[in-house]
Amino acid sequence: MNTPYAFVARIEAKPEKAENVAALLAGALPLAEAEAGTVDWYAARTSPTTFWIFDTFGSEQARTAHAEGEIVAALTANAELLAGAPEILSADVLAAK
Fold it and tell me: Cα angle at 67 between 57 and 52, to 5 degrees?
């Protein structure tokens, strides 16, 4: 498997700021595309205020670089939009198609 490393992040927006969070995540795609070590990057919405990011990496170093990169910085800089701190979990990819 070429992408055994991943992050899964749950982001909960304040109800009145949910569309701002949606725009922030949609706008983060070019940042993810610019990261050489980020293989796959997805942002999704599962409720009016709940968002998810799932991304994969080919190495632990690439995952670490992403954690220290611009997308996390953007979330931190816009913390006033969020209902709480994002829940960011390191994950190991067990299977992929």
Answer: 75
Query: What's the CA gap between 41 and 1, in Å, rounded?
Result: 17
Does the CA dihedral 21-27-31-34 come out positive or negative?
positive
What tens-digit pLDDT sequence spans the chain (97 residues)?
Answer: 689 999 999 999 999 999 999 999 999 999 999 999 999 999 999 999 999 999 999 999 999 999 999 999 999 999 999 999 999 999 999 999 8
Asked if 63 contacts 7 with a C-beta cutoff of 8 angstroms, the reply is: yes
Q: Determine the Cα–Cα distance for residues 94 and 4; give it in Å rounded to an integer.
A: 7
Q: What is the pTM of this model?
A: 0.93
- Distance set, CA 69 to CA 4, 38, 58 (Å): 20, 11, 16
